[in-house]
Structures are given as C-alpha cells and as structure tokens.
Write a structure and sequence with these properties.
- The chain has 127 residues and is of the alpha+beta class.
- 20% of the residues lie in helices and 46% in strands.
- A seven-stranded antiparallel β-sheet has the order 2-1-5-6-7-4-3.
- The radius of gyration is 14 Å and the shape is globular.
Length: 127
C-alpha cells in the first residue's frame, strides 16, 4: 500500500467535516451544477462514491462529456493561508444503478436511486 501525500491527507481531513459539496459539469450547455453533503461522499481507491436521487442534469451532461469538477472545503482544517482548506477534484463521472458499490451505498442511504462514481484525475488544493 502506498503512503498518502500531505496533500491527500489534508483532502481526507476536509472530508471528515460536514459541509456542502458542489458537483459541476462545466462543459454542458449550460453548465450543470448540483449539490450534496460531504458526509455522503466516500473515497474508494481512486474514486468518489456519491449517492444520487436527483442529479439528473449532471447525469445528462455526462452522456456527452463526462468531465466534472467537485468542490470540497472546511474552515476546520488549516489551509494554505490560515484556517480553511478547499479542494477541487477533477474527474470523470458515471452513474450506476446496480452492482456492489451501488448496493453498499444503498444500505447507507435507502433513498438513493443511482450512484455517482467520479474517477479522480487530479486533486488541487485551492486555499
């Protein structure tokens, strides 16, 4: 198992706090934007697993361009210039309605209808 970088550890520390998460399909016309909560998001290997009940605009956008940006932040984690750290995660989105990952998330969140899986391309600390 590889050792996590300082940058990755700080990102995971931010995820331990509650707050909004914004998911953007920037290349949709118009851009698709939805929100969820950090406590709903799981990091599994190189993927984010996010329960979806709505998110139809992002799902539709992913059919033609699957690139997404997901934003996270917390004032509870030291950032680059003081209190508060924020990250942009860039990746590729797909929606699943069955399978082991879907079933696992459905146990946690019975209301979900699909699982948004974001394969991480990169993580950038913004603050």
């Amino acid at each position: 198992m590889r050792r996590r970088s300082h940058h990755e550890r700080k990102f995971l520390a931010v995820l331990k706090h509650e707050g909004p998460v914004t998911i953007v399909s920037p290349y949709a016309q118009p851009a698709a934007v939805v929100n969820t909560w950090m406590s709903y998001v799981s990091v599994v290997g190189n993927e984010l697993h996010i329960p979806a009940a709505g998110m139809h605009s992002v799902e539709e956008a992913a059919k033609t361009d699957d690139r997404v940006t997901v934003t996270f932040g917390s004032k509870e984690v030291e950032g680059t210039v003081g209190p508060g750290a924020g990250f942009h995660v860039h990746g590729r989105a797909r929606f699943e309605s069955s399978g082991p990952a879907f079933d696992e998330k459905k146990k946690q969140f019975p209301w979900l209808t699909r699982l948004l899986v974001v394969t991480i391309d990169d993580i950038q600390q913004k603050i």
